[in-house]
Amino acid sequence: MADEPLEELGGCTPLEYAYTPNMDLIAREGRCGLLRTVPEGFEPGSDIANLSILGYDPAESYTGRGPLEAASMGVALAENDVAYRCNLVTVREGTMEDFNAGHITSAEGADLLRALDAALDGVRVYPGIGYRNLMVVPQGRGAATTPPHDIVGQPIEPHLPRDGDAALLLRCMETSREVFADHPVNRARLREGRLPATQIWPWGGGKKPSLEAFEGRFGLRGGMISAVDLLNGIARLAGMEVIRVPGATGFLDTDYGAKARYAIDALGHLDFVYIHVEAPDEAGHMGDTEEKVRAIERLDEAIGLVLEEPDLVVAVLPDHPTPVRIRTHTTDPVPFAVLGRGRDTARAFTEREAARGSFGVMQARDFLPMLISKR
Ligand SMILES: [Zn+2]
Could you tell me the residue ranges of all domains in the chain? Predict the structure, then answer.
């Protein structure tokens, strides 16, 4: 949700431009600040940022995105397994055209991965949601990899896997090109004018991490609502309840209101619910300002449902910025607003107001303790 001032919005950021009466109320009647969600030396991924916000130190608990998603998908990892996120992507003429193969559906992706799995030896692939799938390398060593969303429009050659499992990964990528080239799923997609999934792109590999239980750490029964495997994997490893919401897609068409209603319901037996909405990030990756503003406004409506509940402490924040100008994540601190932990002079929930907020620049490890403090 966090972004930069844009000329096309008259010098406003999407958050400033969007109509957000509910988030503004949280800021006006609560307190604001900036939160550093990506510690120095880490890539600004959703994995790092959300672990940090949930009070875990990535330096201790982070091994890669793949194993977090494996946990969410219920794929058990042996001690020496390395799990990679395995995107379905569109590469043509050596260029990364799309990091999600035209938002390929889960059913199409599963078809392609089944065909690939049959062609691979010793390596397993598992279908996930849409373009987000999983690859497991037994006795793996890891590799230096690049997230495909960081190189859209660029030649892939300088960003291919290096070190460790690289030779194996490159062989699997080659096999996927052969298996997918004339696959019925791709023939149908091309006929319909959609992008084909030309190959897999493994990245973010790591071994199974161990997270201290959320309840033991904070004394709270916690729950997670997200359509994104990564977030649900973190929740599972932390012993939080994973609350599945029908209609939550992880994309722009997600059912925001349902997420809010399920969260309120879950607070009947939980102390803390973390609602993650991916849509503004996806709009940022698409470089689509209008869609980003719309995603923020729809999110705000759902927050309105949460605010109807009495006696809640409510915080709103992005996990990391995804500015539409650069179409990828940055490490800049994110604006946050908290209702129920005092007041300051903020008038609205925006990047600029939050920068003047009374919390100043806070480190992520201090965020949950502040939120749950008894004062
Ligand atoms: Zn993103």
Answer: 7-62+212-372, 72-206
